[in-house]
Amino acid sequence: MSEPVPTASTLPAQPPADPAVVSDETPSTDARRIGPTFRTSHPLASGPVVQPAPTVDGFVETFLGELNYGQGVLLSQSTVNDQYLALARTVRRYLMADWLETGARRRQAQQKTVAYLSAEYLLGRQLGNNLLATNLQDVADAAMSRCGIDIASLRAQEVEPGLGNGGLGRLAACFVDSLATMDVPCIGYGIRYEYGIFRQTFEGDRQVEVPDSWLSLGSPWEFPHPERQVLVHFGGRTEEVTDENGRVVCRWVPDWNVVGMPYHYMVPGHRNGVVNTLRLWSAKATQAFDLQIFNSGDYAEAVRAQTFAENISKVLYPEDSTPQGKELRLQQQYFFVACSLHDFIDNTLPHDFDLRRLPERLVVQLNDTHPVIAIPELMRILVDRKGFDWDEAWDITKRCFAYTCHTLLPEALEVWSVELLGRLLPRHLEIIYRINEEFLEEVREAFPGDEMLVRRMSVIAEHPERSVRMAYLATVAGSKVNGVAELHSQLLRDKVLPDFSRMWPDKFTNVTNGITPRRFVLLANRRLSDLVTDTIGDGWVTDLDRLRELEPYADDASFRAAFREVKQGNKERLAALLRVRDGLEIPQDSMLDVMVKRLHEYKRQTLKLLHIVSLYDDVVSGRVAAEDLTPRTVVFGAKAAPGYHLAKEIIFLVNAVADTVNADPRVAGRLSVAFPANYNVTLAEKLIPAADLSEQISLAGKEASGTGNMKFALNGALTIGTDDGANVEIRRLVGDDHFFLFGMTEPEVERLRPGYTPSMYYEEDARLRSTIDLLASGHFTGGDRQAVAPVIDNLLHQDAFMALADFRSYLDAQERVEAAYADPDAWSRSAILNVARSGFFSSDRSMRDYLDRIWHA
Ligand SMILES: *Cc1c(COP(=O)(O)O)cnc(C)c1O
């Protein structure tokens, strides 16, 4: 490590928080009594034990020590899992001093802290990232080989924590990475699901979901902190009581409780000595449950009650952007939000902190509506527990929160029925009603006589059932509301929350999403990173705009050749992986055309499928000679929510088409389709660096931003895409000549919408008709026409996302792709310019924008 290791004398002598001072909501478990209650003058009491600077010898010694004394095995007897755990614990030692030092520094400095509240963190594997952050890769490689161990097999042993569905959860992971790299005080708060996103397998071409038991082989990156556990209430009723000052206050008399147990994860900055914390909550039964078990005649029933409490953090809901309104999900949301606010206010701030100054010390960023229940929770803490009057509490609360909206789909806007919310969180419902009453008064003052407007803007919807609109609550309370790409933020103002943006134009802002270049370039694409660093130095890793310095090299033939070699190497690496991982053979010397993202109708995997079938149809019908087809390998990756029937039918159809196309000698070597199961961050890191073509083909106005699109551009793939989400900004930055645009614009979509008749396109476009007919004939499903019907019928009679309307334009754009690909020099020039001009999409830049426009931290 280049950073000096902190010693006792360089560290502030801050005593640990006194564990005896606990709030009314903290359970008095035995764990509470284990706190550091002693005082000593020993110098090591206030500074970490110094970890010697890393050498290969030292690393080997620590590793073997972990193996012997941590795992309890000899090297000669150890399994790969033993070795992986010992290696992880070795790496974690090198981060620990920085973690302790960062924590101490944060406590001392009393700066504003970002509490990033997110129900999802799609972290990806930790070992590689942490080796990179500590710059220990080479030392670890050498140390493992000295032990006769292949480090690659240890890396492969790690099960990624899949605590998210897709883009939203991955964004949260990129953001905390950037904040650590920028040394911004941040605590990421979330849920430690025992089962993350399901593992996808295919049986008979159909998706089958397998539980993701990511913790089963041990989890070396987490640290449970029972002394920081928090009690969370549910259910019951409210009552009014008079307090000691004669004030009438409201009291919540809950029905049941659970304990939130925090697990801490290290979030290292990139080689800067900073390690921030991600704090994920796990639900446990309270001692009361244990007592109940002890005293109960019905032992089995009591144990069931315990299981009930622990169910809260059992599993991640696998719906991506279509919440189902399930009671357990609301329990999850309140659970982690209550734990997190309590943790910050009662266990992180100094005990004598004056909460009137809370907005100077805390900004809570709400990642979508999932944590919005934090707003009434903070009001409850301030008014009911801390004795603030309503107006002052509301003023504080409004200044603490900001809200990020992630969607444009109406069905994705979360609402909770009043019945359910009142049953689970009666006090919060009262608070929401009062917030709404006062807000609607404000609306009436601002726009007198417009009762329709009042009803439209109400946080409480009356139809189809009385329910709370969480996005509205977040907008009313938040100091800022942001969309996640320019187009999205504009549509948010104009279409999703127009009344609110009229009332508070300054509340609305944009922060275009980004991705961390550490994971998605440096770690995922070592070949490209080395080439870039050899050419312009390594400053780009933390200042991605410097990729601009590559621009002149786009015209340098030897650089282009080196760039092509990088791509080819990545393709070979991918081919080797898919061979062992999935038993798939992907041909070399072909264009790698990749569409990886959650399966959703609006993302239009069916449009890609129609393209494949049309290429295949061209050859088998004799219209095009196979030799005239640009050799192309299409790779899909996509999970469907288990209850999303049409999405699962689409997966089936992609697999069926892949089977047929890959087995047909008429297109052999010219067209192939690979659909490796279980697309996740680990696979993304291998797939994206190998891609030539990035498919970003959502219907305009539906994809809020996309981040996959950014990962591809930064790894030198060219995009074929619609004018949607951040594609708009990618195209503007890389230039029209280096981006394949197609499809309707958002206004064109809206104009077409009213009378949209998909069958008309089928009737009028012979190529589309032939494509759909071939699909519908059962050619890809062993003659079974029934098996194709759900997808075909939907396309012809509904096609809510207008794949047929954009089909012709998409095919034309694909022809432009083929023409461009035929000139390798021009193609790699464009690819290099994509890399050079995409520095804007670093999540470091997103974080700077949040800091400037929203957090002011
Ligand atoms: C980046 C990423 C996503 C988001 O992809 P989009 O194309 O933006 O939808 C989803 N899943 C994984 C595993 C990712 O890494």
From TrEMBL:
* Catalytic activity as recorded in UniProt: [(1->4)-alpha-D-glucosyl](n) + phosphate = [(1->4)-alpha-D-glucosyl](n-1) + alpha-D-glucose 1-phosphate
Q: Which PROSITE patterns does the protein's record reference?
A: PHOSPHORYLASE
Q: Which UniProt keywords apply?
A: Carbohydrate metabolism, Glycogen metabolism, Glycosyltransferase, Phosphoprotein, Pyridoxal phosphate, Transferase
Cofactor(s) it depends on: pyridoxal 5'-phosphate
A GO molecular function term, named singly, is:
glycogen phosphorylase activity
Task: Output the Pfam families linked to this UniProt entry.
Answer: Phosphorylase
Q: What ranges does the record give for the region Disordered, renumbered to this chain?
A: 1-49
What EC number(s) is this enzyme filed under? 2.4.1.1
Superkingdom is: Bacteria
Q: Which residues carry this modification: N6-(pyridoxal phosphate)lysine?
A: 711
**Could you give one GO CC term from the UniProt record?**
cytoplasm
Name a biological process GO annotation: glycogen catabolic process
* Keyword match Protein transport: no
What InterPro entries does the record point to? Glycg_phsphrylas (IPR011833), Glyco_trans_35 (IPR000811), Pyridoxal_P_attach_site (IPR035090)
NCBIfam families in the record: P_ylase
- By its UniProt entry, which PANTHER family does this protein fall under? GLYCOGEN PHOSPHORYLASE, GLYCOGEN PHOSPHORYLASE, LIVER FORM
Function text:
Allosteric enzyme that catalyzes the rate-limiting step in glycogen catabolism, the phosphorolytic cleavage of glycogen to produce glucose-1-phosphate, and plays a central role in maintaining cellular and organismal glucose homeostasis. Phosphorylase is an important allosteric enzyme in carbohydrate metabolism. Enzymes from different sources differ in their regulatory mechanisms and in their natural substrates. However, all known phosphorylases share catalytic and structural properties.
UniProt lists the family membership as follows: Belongs to the glycogen phosphorylase family.
Q: What is this protein called?
A: Alpha-1,4 glucan phosphorylase
Question: Origin organism of this chain?
Answer: Phycicoccus avicenniae
